What does this fold into?
Amino acid sequence: MPVREHDLGEVRDAVAKLCATFPMDYWRATDRERRYPAEFVRALTEAGWLSCLIPEEYGGAGLPLAAAAAILEEIQKSGANGAACHAQIYTMGTVLRHCNEAQKRKYLPEIAKGELRLQAFGITEPSAGTDTSSIRTAAVRKGDRYIVNGQKVWTSRAEHSDLMLLLARTTPREAVQKKTEGLSVFIVDMKAALNKGLSIRPIRTMINHATTEIFIDNLEVPAENLVGEEGNGFRYVLDGMNAERILIGAECIGDARWFLAKATAYANERKVFGRPIGQNQGVQFPIARAYMATEAAALMVERAAALYDAGRPCGPEANMAKQLAAEASWQAGDMCLQTHGGFGFAEEYDIERKFRETRLYQIAPISTNLVLCYIAEHVLHLPRSY
Ligand SMILES: Cc1cc2nc3c(=O)[nH]c(=O)nc-3n(C[C@H](O)[C@H](O)[C@H](O)COP(=O)(O)OP(=O)(O)OC[C@H]3O[C@@H](n4cnc5c(N)ncnc54)[C@H](O)[C@@H]3O)c2cc1C
It folds into this structure.
């Protein structure tokens, strides 16, 4: 169901109001201490925003992806960092389309009530990198369970999630015709698995992202936790990945709008040589350019979300949305820092934090080069380069 922008006004207002109760010094403190913003995540959960995509019959709000995009954009636009919980929304891209009825009845109502969290997405591995089909984590069926062995890296929020969507190989790469075949997705009960085949090691990074490394050693996963059919997992995670790319695009639009508002206000108020710095074209042109890039990228995010909500193919649009929005937010961040001169470096202006945070989205969930490879090969039909 496509949603018009004016229908989302109430959603945007309510999210903005909630975010306003978490002032910037809250984000400064959590960032400084690399502390999980549990209070913020709880407030979003209780307000029902993190279960926005879950259909009403399972206790959620049953909103389309366009609404989820508006929610995440507002969070970022307020100066907050939604990365602490955005995966609870985008993992639904895989769950709603590919989990069976029994799995949905088991998990979705509890997720909607906020009693269960599904915000870990275990795909990336240290040796495979972007080449997902080369992952080595393997699941072998033994009766009514799978025995899983392997390692994941950059599994964000693993310490703050009850469940994880895990991608593993169920048929060796040499035994399949296409390398994307033979991969399967599992729902892993992380609390039950912790120290019984699953261990988690946090990775400290330049941003407050609660990201981790996961070691899997003879972990037993019940066969009923297999999502869809064995061997088709790559297709299932792609649905989650498209949702993720569109939503991260929306977050970048929110970041860009935060940088633009901050820079415009400062350029109007800061006086040097007896006049506002924003009167100089050397200052106002980069702001205008960043604004134009942001508005153009926002249209692509909107289009990708509309295609996704209509159940139509949206791979190119989801990738372009993520890339254009990530570039726009980085352009806006760089412009905002430059506009603030030395003060842009001061923690209390929050620019340096948002600058670090928004940089991630040119690397994750997929790096810019790989988006370009995708467009070159699949849209422009140029030779595959990798
Ligand atoms: C903070 C953070 C959080 C993350 N959270 C998650 C998560 O929750 N779950 C998860 O599964 N993953 C997560 N990731 C992983 C993320 O998706 C990957 O880092 C990203 O996809 C890039 O993979 P890589 O780091 O292995 O880079 P690599 O694949 O090693 O690539 C390194 C560089 O080489 C370039 N490159 C590689 N191959 C080519 C090519 N053929 N042509 C041109 N350039 C190429 C890339 O563009 C990149 O710039 C996270 C990463 C970070 C940093």
